[in-house]
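Cross-posting from the modeling subforum.

Setting up a comparison between two proteins and wanted a second pair of eyes on the formatting. Protein 1 (sequence, then structure tokens):
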Amino acid sequence: MNEDVNSVSPTLGFIIKTIDHNGYKLNIWDVGGQKTLRSYWKNYFEKTDALLWVVDATDRLRIEDCRDELHNLLQEERLSGATLLVFANKTDVNGCMDEAEILKGLQLDAIKTHKWHIMQCSAITGKNLDEGLEWVVQDAKERLFLY
């Protein structure tokens, strides 16, 4: 957020950031999605309240792989209390999958174990990034005891 998008590249490993959002500190673990990194994901699940799953809305060829990884991930015991926000990225690109196509491709309606929400976004323009974080914060406020 508020970063020069021209200098951002895909995450190769992981990045930890703390974001202040409307008076709440959000600790964000950006974990790369390459197949070689997926076996390490489980090392970052402790005390996870929300999972933000970013889908490339222009990549129809990998939507099934994306679905399989997501559904496998949601079976992890340490993620049982986490809610899921699916960010459909690159929805500002002509010919991309729309929300309905992503919902169907990821089989989100089959997810009964986690509260979920899908939201279009653009990492380039920032569209809906704040709104997505606001959804996560509101969801946490409804579920968790905040002192």
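Protein 2 (same layout):
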Amino acid sequence: METSSIVSAVKIDQWQRKRQQGFKSVPDEGRTVTYLGKAFHVYPDTFWPFLDSQPLVRKLRIGAGQSVLDVGTGSGVIAVFASLGGAGRVLAVDINPAAIRSARRNARAHGVDGVMEVRRSDLFEQVGDERFDVITANLPFRNKPAPDVVAQSQWDTGFRTNTLFFEQVGAHLKPGGRIYFAHANFGEVDEVRRLARQAGMRVRRLASSVPGEGEERQFHVFLIKPAASA
């Protein structure tokens, strides 16, 4: 079992609620956040670029001209880095209208709006039958009731979003395709592994963040492939 027993659920609750309040208190014109040396703009109610996705971004490898689907794009950071990394097409989707607005602005700001399309979608609902070489996902880590769209960026009521992701993702992977999946030691790591296996996929942890002094939270990136091609 990878979920760390030393991570206090009470402390994580407090930290996540504080972050959600921060997302909501952004001024109407938005604010700029620096992430891996680049500036990203976020409007109110958008999940900010944070440490959680850094292992994924650092390990993300895109072949020249490959297609990428970024599920739960938030401010668009993973999609932007995929576009800058040589992708020929990137589709970034999110259910949150504020995230769509933020991601579109960031695509323009980084000069990748010719490669990166941003579309409002609940997971794959508006993706159609398109398939991709690479799918990236930074979904909510915890099975906890989410009262609004902001909380949904961190909490997954009944683990519905994660469950549907693994039920449906195989239909959107090209042969030989792969998934880069972000998660955390305070999330449902064992359940993610179970859902992936149930979908006929193999999971390998590629990297984890290194907690600082006194820091219990740790973020992971998993490489997930259909078992037949793993």
